[in-house]
Every structure is written in C-alpha cells, then in structure tokens.
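Re: beginner question about structure tokens

> Can someone show what the tokenized structure looks like for a real chain? I only ever see the sequence side.

Sure, here's an example I had lying around. Input first:
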Amino acid sequence: MTFQDSGSGFVINDKVLHFTEYALLGYLLMRYFFINKEKEPGSAAFLSLAAGSLYAASDEIHQGFVGYFSSGIFGGVRNPDALDFIADITGVAAAAVLYIIINRFKIPKTKMQE
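And the corresponding structure tokens:
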C-alpha cells in the first residue's frame, strides 16, 4: 500500500512509515530501559524488542477491527498485515542496534563532570 497526498504527487510506502514509526518507538524504549532502568545494552535491546513486538502485534490485531476510514492521506482499508509487523519489529531492532552503537562511542562522565 502507498499513501499519496492529493495534488502533490508525494508517495510514501506504508512499510517505510511502519519502519520509521517503530524505529522512533524503539529509540524511546531503549532510552527508557537503558537510562531509567539502568539495564545493560543487551538487556535493554531485548526488553525494547519484546515490548515493541508486543505493541506491533496488538496494533496489527487492532487493525482487523477498524475497517475502512477516510482521513486525509492515510484514508483507506486497514487490515492486519504480516509485512507491516515485520517492518515494525525491524524498525525497533534497527533503533536498538543504532542506540547501542552510538552509546559505545560516548565518553563516560567522570565524577568531576557530574
């Protein structure tokens, strides 16, 4: 499925939207588990992927009950889609990996800097 804005010709593949939205969710989940819960990077990634996957699954199941809606560029029929779910969890996983890579290169704060 693609979304097209009326008049501009701007087309967005819905899998790209799913990946992007869930990458943002994955980043926020990583930040939560890594910083707020002080988890190790691997544990934070696992928890982020588990939480993101559960949310993605519930979102796809929910779409089976929504049916048709006509709202702006996102109007159309909403059905559960396994490829959407794969795009969702891929976005969460990509964000988790990127978060770990970026945080490996950060300089740790010393007691004087805190």
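Each token stands for a local structural state, so reading them left to right follows the chain. The chain has one domain: 2-104.
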